[in-house]
Amino acid sequence: MHEMSVALSVVDQVERAARPGGAHGVRRVVVEIGELAGVVPDALAFCFELACAGTLLEGAELATRFLPGRASCAPCGRTWDTGMPPDMLCAVCRGGAGELLSGRELRITEVHWSASPTTPDPPPVPQPEES
User: Fold this and answer.
1) For binding Zn(2+), which residues are annotated in this chain's numbering (predicted)?
2) Residue 70 and residue 78 in contact, taking contact as beta carbons nearer than 8 Å
3) Per-residue pLDDT for 36 more than 80?
4) Which of 93, 97, 121, 130 counts the highest number of beta carbons within 10 A?
5) H or E element: which one contains 101?
6) What is the bridge-based pairing of β-strands 70-73 and 97-102?
7) How confident is residue 29, by pLDDT bands cut at 50, 70 and 90?
């Protein structure tokens, strides 16, 4: 399952971005996933939760945005949704797709940082016992 390696990479990239800014935590990460990227969003969400354990992202939400596969025809210029499995032939002229316009994306688009950590209550001050 390569979703675990994708999740680990997302956690690593967000943690590297957090260090210079002194972030204390992450509430939410938004990732765009292209239809043709070969990533199963539910599997990625499961792996993301595991990958976040013990990191700055522990407890963070993963939100995904789906991007359809789109292609354009070199001979006639028409564009279409490729679907899955991808249909790479133009429905108008039956020419082959000249260019894949979208669908292979896999990118972090947003990170919502947590507010500063709350200061824990100070430990109670020991009181001398009365005799």
Assistant:
1) 73, 76, 90, 93
2) no
3) yes
4) 97
5) strand 97-102
6) antiparallel
7) very high
